[in-house]
Each structure stands twice: as C-alpha cells, then as structure tokens.
Design goal:
By secondary structure, the chain is of the alpha/beta class. The chain has 21 helices and 15 strands.
Amino acid sequence: MKNKIINLLTSSVNKLGVQDLAIHVETPKNTDNGDFSSNVAMQLTKVLRKNPREIAEQIISNLEEVDFVEKVEIAGPGFINFFVNKATLGDILKTIFDKNENFGENNTGNNEKVLLEYVSANPTGDLHVGHARNGAVADSLSRIMKKSSYDVTREYYVNDAGNQINNLTLSADCRYKQALGLDVSMPEDGYNGNDIVKLGEVLAEQFGNSLLEKSEEDYYKFLREYSVNYQLEKLKKDLTAFRVEFDSFYSETSLYENGKIKETLTKLRELGHIYDLDGATWLRTTELGTGDDKDRVLIKADGSYTYFTPDIAYHKDKFDRGYKKLINLFGADHHGYVPRLKASVAATGYNPTDLEVLIMQLVRLLENGQEVKMSKRTGKTITIRDLIEEVGVDAARYFLVMRSADTHLDFDFALAKEQSSDNPLYYVQYAHARICSILRQVEENKYDITKYDANLLTDEYSIDVLKNLAYFPEVVAQAAKYYEPHRLCNYMQNLAASFHKFYGNNKVITENIEQTISYLALITAVKITIKNALQLIGVSAPEKM
C-alpha cells in the first residue's frame, strides 16, 4: 500500500515538472493524521519556490483517482495525509499468501556485490560475548541484505600471521612437551588457557614423540599450521552452533605467499603515497582526506611489517575481486583504526566511501541487576558456548541484535530466560505459537483462507494488524540499506503487539463462517510474517511453547 501511495505521488509530482524525487511516505502514529503521510510538499519548496501548502494543493489536484484512497487532506505546514479505503488494506493478505516464505523480498540492493567481513577473531582462544554480538548482528545483516537483492559474500579474515601466532606456536610447543613429560616453561607472552593445554595433550596423543624428530624449521612450521587449524576448527564449531555462517575464510598468510603485500607496496610507492623516514616506510594517510591525524608506519626500521600493511593489501584485494561495497564489523576498540583504513583504500585507487565500517559497542552481562564477567563453569571470560548453554541460541541472538549495534547493550540473563511478555523474544515467539495453536483447532474444518472477505477486516484492531503486515517489506529494505538489523526486532514487537490486541478484542473462531475465515486469513498472514522476520535474524519460530 505504501508503494502505491509513493507511485501515486510520483506521478503527480512529475506533472509539476519534477523528476527523480525520492518521495518519503510514513505511517502516522496518530490515525487522525491518516493511514499514510508524506512531506513531499516541503521537499519541493526550494525547487518550486512556493508555499508548501500551495504545493500540496497542486499535488492533490494532480492525483489520479484510485479506489484504495478514500480521502486526502493537508495538515500542518503542508503534510499530505492519505486515508485509505479500509477494505483495500486486505489486499496485502493475497500478497503474503502468494509469496509465503519469500514475503519481505525487495529489490533495494539491485544485485550489488557486497563483501561482509565479520568476527575475524585471532585463532588464539575462545570467542567471547563481544564476538557473539558481532557475529549475530553481521549474520542477521547478511540474511536481510540477501532478502533485499544484494549479492552478499560472508568472509572471515583469519589472522594466521604475526606475533600472536608466534606466541600460539610457542605455547603449543610448551604444552606438547609438557604432555610428553618434559620439563619446559611457558614463554612470557604465552597463552595459558585450558584450550592450549588441551591442544598440547592432543598433539602428544596423536603424534607421540615423532614431532621432535623433525628439523627445528619443519617442527615449528608444522606446529604453527596445526595449532592455527586446531583453534580455527573450534571457532568454526562454536559459530555454527550459534547459526553464524561464512562463505569463505581468507588467510592473512596467503597475502605474504602470493605476493599481494609486495605488489600493494609497489603500487603505493608508484603513486607517491609512501615515503621513507628514520629507516622506516610510511603511508601519507594525513593527505588522503579521511581524517587520520598522523601518517602511519608500514615497514618498521627492522624490516618487519606493521599489522596495518597486510590489512591494506587485504582490502585492496577485496575490491580487486570485484566487490562494489565492503562492510566490516569492528569492535569498539577499533574505532580509531577506521580513518587510516579508509585512507589506505583511497591510496590504492578505490573510493573510501565504498568501505563501510560498523563499530560494535560493548555488551554488559547482567544477572539479577549485577554485572557478570566470569563463566560459572570455568571461572573465565564468558564465551559463546557459555551464552548458548545459559539462555539458548534464540534468546542470545535476539537480545544481541535487538539494539542498534553502535549503542552499549545490557544483556539481562534473567530476562532472556523469563517466559513472560516482559521478555521481548518470548512476546514475539508466543504470538507465533498462539496462532499455530488456533490453526490446529480448525485443521479438520479445512477452511479455505484465500476466500477471506476484506470487508470483514475493517475493525480498528484488524486494520492495525494489516498496516503492520504491509510495512514488512519496507522494514526489511530499510534494515538492509542502513545496515540496522535491530529494525526487524522493533518491527516484530509492533506486529506482535497488534496481534495480541486483535486477539484480546476479537473472537477468531465463531459460528459466522465468513468472519472466521477472514480472521483466520489475517492471523495466518501474521504467522508467516513473524516466521520470516525471525528467520532474518537467525531465530526460530516455535509452533508450541
């Protein structure tokens, strides 16, 4: 319906000589202001150099007469309010039944190639709750963007080079030898977690003393590769359990092996973006217009690369692979890294605005109002596994996605497990389960809900449900366009609320067959939409609770 209003306004505005105007139509909270409202007259004041109310009158006079609009009014400084024919709102039900699990699809992305990089945690330890938020938000975003016709690739950048991997290798070396009964001490910067102890035991059990027979070079090369793969497989297992998937895992080491880092440095020097000073090689990030406050070292005086250097080569390679938009999800501690990364994109010849970096703010875990930092099971930092065990995948994902990623999030364990309307996930899932229960009651009647009568869905509660249903594709499109999966959670709360109000004020199953069929059609459409919305954030839609 909203698209029909936009098309109607577009045609009218075109008659005023204005083309390609992005017309906005909103759903007013106060129904006295109509079913839909647009500020298009105010948008045109500078173009047409007229009073907005005068422009609104011209727009209305040019509107085509259609059966779905009952009346049009001007309000305030020039808002155009549309009051629709209530019976025509029921048209959305046919759309939902026709599209079913595809309801919500839209063409916002126009098949644009997007590379979405997320989590990308160093394979040196378990994934914690911060990684969980990163994964839940990004995975949800990938689902939403695919629903909106973006060509999305999901990628994990594996930091399998650098000092942290050297420390992992030395830590594994120590634990392996200790498992063999040798008296060795952990390196000063070693990883002391139980997972590394287990890694050492696995190495000892699988290979015995045989690894010590290798040359020192081969021994450490093998240990390095084995340790990274061992840790990475654990991370993949945890992410899969959390319903977070990837299309590719991109190795940092490959950038060294295939010469992409040297190739990138050569190009940067040819373009005049790097210089040498005090024995080091620097990138002129301050001159590239992205707001970095100082130039950055690429090669240190000792000849080693900074961690920034392979990052430049990696992002250049993303664009070289044909992606038009890059989206990275970074932790809050990486906020200051964004200007230099965008500068590097500009330096390699690409548009820095085509790199979008979403900063994930911190998560605070609460139990009975008190902050929780340690796992009850291990006494260590709370991991994704702990989160799943404590509240389940559904609640964990919903709670991590339901707030804007750029805001701090309080995750209340008690609320996430509570079976009441205070729990936002329970509130939505219960609406779905309640509808399933109603539909089971009439299974034997075999009602044909496609024979609904829209004229029997004009009470205020049915109308509110229909408006919410019709809004779903636009919510999906907006969530994709602005990279905001939490919009789906807000939407589901509103849709569930409109259903609960409808159910509390209308008896669905009555002796009036026509009314019963129409109400069953309405709630079936709600069921389909809630399920589709939940799937977009990786959450299940239970039929019983």
